[in-house]
Structures are given as structure tokens and as C-alpha cells.
Amino acid sequence: MIDVYWDNGIVVRTNNFEIMLDPIIKTNKISSVFISHAHRDHIYGLLNEYCLKYSTSQTIAIGEVLTNKKIKNVIPCSYGERVEIQNLELHFINSGHVFGSAALIIKNRDVTLLYTGDFNFSRSLIQEAISPIECDIMITEATYGRPGIVFPPREEVYLDIISWTAKMINNGFLPILLVYPLGKAQEITKLFNKFSSIPVVTHSKISKINEVVRSFGENLIFYDLNEDGKELIESKDCVVLFPYNCNINKLRTKYPNSKIGIITGWAAVYKNIKNVDISFPLSSHSDYPQLIDFISKCNPKKVLTIHGYAKELAKSLRKIGIDAKSII
Ligand SMILES: [Zn+2]
To answer: Could you read off the pLDDT of 230-257 as tens digits, one per residue?
Structure first.
């Protein structure tokens, strides 16, 4: 018997074990937590000193940089690793979302549960895609789970980003790209490193995470905005990465001769995002067809949806004969 419910995080309870998945508060109600990745809305579980934290070494390292704290009481896990606990097996796999992101499989004698966390069913330059797992219960994110949300092929968007950047430099503008500091920033740094000779200058929030990723062996080449990137910016012969939530008016004032683009999956949903010159629909999540494809391949008996278009995704799944409901 495995019981699943929402209580400021997903609680999974068996007869003798309880774990909270990605709590959204600094909870101390439960003694064990799983943190799927180091995006801000998923790392509250790292902040509670006393509970036991299961996460990948990469996520813990990024969490320490983001919270500026040494995280205690952790069990670092690798992709493919299995941990036995109270007649259960916890199995950690790559979720394809961002550097270090993991999905969790909880298995007892009768039931296999898969918690996807945020996941991507398409391969990026940084992460392999998630692999489907046969399961009985699946808890899946539904960020883009509304019918009709479809991303263009990743390679096409990669090409568009490089072409636009080269064109801006050629026309004497400083190209600025707004990205998520964890995920898109590493992917775009690698994109320019691998397929162009355009130097990448990064805001300090991005530099810090890029450094952690580099410490795990990913060869990212970038120049910090306030250090060796200064001269490059003056020359305008580079691309600059800023966090997606930067104040665009301030950026335009500081860099009057710039053009600003944003890279986000929401560009496939909304025409006008912020006050930018261009937007590129690239996401670290799966789009709607990928969600349906992945879920179908896992062949679950029951699907519980969370985040984003949770209700819409559950409805679509029921239409194709899969028992599904939103849990928040
Ligand atoms: Zn995320």
C-alpha cells in the first residue's frame, strides 16, 4: 500500500515510511525529503537542518551556492543508484530537466511509483532526456500540459539563437539574452561554446552556477560580467546572459546600444513576453505531446498531476483511457 497526497509538498506514505517530495515550505513535519532539482521553488527541503535529504550531489552543490549555506544531513545520490530503506527501494534517475535534476522511483513488493519532478523528454546539450519507466503510479508535472502547446525542434531554436546573435553583433548591437540561471544558462553557454566562436559573458548569478557545473566536468567557457567580461562588453563582440527576471528598462538604460532576447518555453504560448526585442521558445520541460508520449510509454495504472496545467493534462489523459487526476 502506497498513499500519496499533497501537504505543501507531495507526501508518499507506506506502512512504515514517509517521504516528502519537493516540499514548498521549510517543513519539519517529516523526517525524509527528496529534492528533485535546484530551482528556487523546489529547494525548500534543503533548508531544514534536521530532516534527511535525498538528492543528487549536483543539486546539493548548486543548492549550497544558491542558499550560501553548507547543507547538512544529506544523502547524495547518483543517477542509477538504488537505496534500500524499510522494505522499500528508492531509485534515482536522470529527469532531463536541468543539470543534476532527478526523478525518483519508489518501489515496494507490490507497487512501483515514479515521481518525475520537472522533466524533459527531449535531449538538450546539457542533459540526456528522461527514460520511460514502467510504473503503477506516476506523479507527473504538467507545466505545459495543455493541448496545443508544442515546441519547435530544439536544433531549429538553437540555430535561430545563434543567427540572431551573430546578426546583432554584425549590426553593431550588444546582444543580451535573458535565461533561467539554472538550466537554460548552461545550455546556452554550451551552445555558443560548441557551435560558434562568440564569447559568452555571464551575470554573477549565472557565473556561480556555471562554475559549479564546470566543477563536475562540464567544460563551460564563460566570462563574468564584472571581471574578465568587462572588456568584451565594451567591444560588443560577445553575447551576454542575464537572469530572466532582470529589470529590462534598467538593462536598456545601462546598455543603450543593445538588443534583448528572452529564451523560455512560454514563448511558444504567449506572443509578447516582457518588453524584449525577440523571444525564443526553448524549454527545459516537455511540451504537451512529449508529456502524453512519455506517460503512455510508462504505462501507469494511475497518474497524479501537479504544477501548471495539472487539471487539463489529467482530463486529456482520461480521454485516452488513463486514470488520472490533479492532486493540487
Ligand atoms: Zn524546474
So the answer is: 999 999 999 999 999 999 999 999 999 9
Tell me the CA–centroid distance for residue 95 and ligand 1, in Å. 10
Find how far residue 289's CA is from the centre of its chain.
Answer: 18
User: What is the per-residue pLDDT across 93-147, written as a single tens digit (0 to 9) for each?
Assistant: 999 999 999 999 999 989 999 999 999 999 999 999 999 999 999 999 999 999 9
pTM, two decimals, is: 0.95
- Structural domains of the chain, ranges and CATH numbers in brackets: 3-148+285-326 (3.60.15.10), 154-280 (3.40.50.10890)
Identity at 70, one-letter amino acid code: K
How far does the centroid of ligand 1 lie from the alpha carbon of residue 97, in Å? 7
Q: How far is the CA of 38 from the centre of ligand 1 (A)?
A: 7
Q: What is the dihedral of CA 51, 55, 58, 62, to 10 degrees?
A: -40
Task: Give the Å distance between the CA of 141 and the centre of ligand 1.
Answer: 10
Question: In angstroms, what is the span from residue 36 Cα to ligand 1's centroid?
Answer: 9
Residue 121 and residue 321: Cα distance in Å, rounded? 22
How far away, in angstroms, is 199 Cα from ligand 1 center? 27
Cα–ligand 1 centroid distance for 39 (angstroms): 5
User: Which residues lie near ion ligand 1 (Cβ < 5 Å)?
Assistant: 39, 118
Q: How far is the CA of 120 from the centre of ligand 1 (A)?
A: 10
27 contacts 49 by C-beta, under 8 angstroms: no
Cα of 98 vs centre of ligand 1, distance in Å, is 7
